[in-house]
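Supplementary notes for students who missed Thursday's class. We covered one full example, reproduced here. Read the sequence, then the structure, then the short commentary at the end.
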Amino acid sequence: MSDERENSGYHPEQVESKWRERWKQRGTNAPDLDRPGSEPFYNLMMFPYPSAEGLHVGNMFAFTGSDVFGRYQRLRGKTVFEPIGYDAFGIHSENFAIKMGIHPGELIPRNIANFRRQLERVGGMFDWRHTVDTTDPSYYKWTQWLFLQLYKAGKAYKKKAAVNWCPTDKTVLANEQVEGGLCERCKTPVEQRVLEQWFFKITDYAGRLLDNIDGLDWSDSTRGAQRNWIGRSEGAEVDFPSPAGTLRVYTTRPDTIFGATFMVLAPEHPFIDALTTPVQRGAVDAYRAEALKTDLVARRTGEKSKTGVFTGGFAINPATGTPIPVWIADYVLMEYGTGAIMAVPGHDERDFAFATKFALPIIRVIAAPGESASTPLTEAHHGHGVLVNSGPFDGVSTAEAPRKVTSWLKAKGAGEGKTLYRLHDWCISRQRYWGPPIPIIYCEACGPQPVPEQDLPVVLPPIEDFRPDDSGVSPLARHREWYHVACPKCGKQGRRETDVSDTFLDSAWYFLRYPSTEFTDRPFDKERTKRWLPVATYIGGNEHAVLHLLYARFITMVLKDLGHLEFEEPFLRFRAHGMIVKDGAKMSKSRGNVVIPDEYINKWGADTFRTYLMFLGPLGDGGDFRDDSVSGPRRFLERMWLLVGDAGDVSVGPGVPPGLLAKWHRAKQRATEGMESLRYNTAIAALMELLNAVKDEGAHPRALVDEMIVMLAPFAPHFAEECWERMGHATSVFDARWPAFDPALLIESTVEIVIQVNGKVRSKLTVARDADEATVLAAALVDGATKKFLAGREPKKRIYVPGRLVNLVV
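Structure (token representation):
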């Protein structure tokens, strides 16, 4: 390490411990939530889940990036509320406890304590009075209350449903937790099971959730991901009479109904038993049993050869009056549409492949220019054209046909227009131990009964045998003392619901609880919530761009409709942070390149570590963590430390060299633009360049140094506080204001001209920016270094590039 570092007198361990204690004593990071002194600004970051022993550098990159923005907003004059908490329930935490052989009730609090130690040490502007822990009964009491509000409003219900089941983790998996038919966590092949599950009716809000997206200040990729997940489509529901009853199908192409030559049902469809003939019974039963072994994600993608079996039954195509065979196949899902499709092989790829494999009829009902009704089909035709082989609609364009055919079907009593969404209801049941018990009591006489609100929370009992088994029943069912309970309606013995709720429910409302943690009689205080929410800026991982954000939006909408909130969108602005890699490779334990921040903070200090992380690249892109690069930001802080010691009393004005004045204002402009766009690396680079300019000029204007400290403060808060105090200020640096720049001073009055002799750089010259060519050439010829290389010779040619260089050819 350089002598400069060794002799600077900067000792981060002393500075950082001093200012952590000062902040705590002075309540520096604890704003008055009832009487904010200026514009309230709720700065939210995604809270961590303590499913490991400690936070890694990727976590710290995310938290520091959000903290930097919060500190910047404070310097802009906002009253910033920046809370933090722990998403501590769920399968990640439970699996970690099982792996460690320690009960989660013992292990997770220990992990939380370590997380807090790390978060305090890194210097976040956290208001520790308002933290949440989702495993604390004082928190999940209100998660259970939230369930009851939806239940009473008819937005929560229980039904049997096909779900993804991991036989190793012994739990239900959401579709996004299945990758290539394998559990994303343990890589076990996923099975399908039919279980009784609790659902929230998020589909009731699908249109609203979709329509609101355009008004959100979110990145395009995040908004696009939400639109795709909700997936609105316009079409029609059509009725196909059959011996088992009317089979209703949903189609986005009602104009192709004359080409429907067979139907396909999901293996779970309730009409299958009635439609199946005795001859086909064995084949149908065998196929259905095999389909249940395949996970729902693999069935949805359809990226495999088509399989299926004929039921032996038929339905009537309402457009043609013709009987068409009814098949079952695993690529049709009960969760989308009606669990039945009309197959139009002439104009759908999947149907074409299925019809080709099983020798089913293929009819053309759309003809492009140059084609006719009899033009053979060698593949499914997706293009536009006019209808053919379509009875009264022959010759109608595909632009008009959907509307006309739908109206015709409606007049016949055979169908109607319908808007459908890919989004399906939110399954919140989990057959695990580590989660908030769902507050329902079952009574043989009274049926399901909600736990009375005054009896909340339903406390998770501390049972020793918490490991899940393969039964699909929660371990809580084994705890008889907790399981049996009096019915709240009739008083007879009932039984508790043993499923716990999805951890996504814990995180769907935590931002509402933060400002109101001290209130024990309500989940969130009305006045506080009105003052501080919606959240001003939310920064988090793009892996949660769909489900977490969607669920939080849904819960907020429901609470608004029930009169508990005055707004329906929780996050005004969302930005996703990038990912940190190590030496060019994604961090993972298997590669052995996971970076634990403690060792770097021990060696370099938290402020160097924070500054380095933010210097890696734009927050939205992430960066490559390299051990040999941390020293650069540390040297920068060392030089700043020395500059503060050298700072004089020179004020803005004649004492500041004109060239430095322009560089000063340009640095303020670049730093401001970098902070606003979350391109923190450019803000830090601007400060580094300004420091070099100050050193080159040999001038240390006090006002300039003050402003450099303020602009550095979001990145290196302890360091900046100490430097601010060394400059004689009695208040916190975060009570200062972010420096403004003067556009009129961004352009320097002088420029530096490079002087070349025969094309080689021999000297440099500073001249007035508006100096003409004759003046610049005259100055170059009398320059001492230039004269040495001219050696008395007269240049044969003089080349001048305005504002840049002079080349003298001899």
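Commentary. The two ends are 46 Å apart (CA to CA). The mean pLDDT is 91. If anything here is unclear, bring it to office hours.
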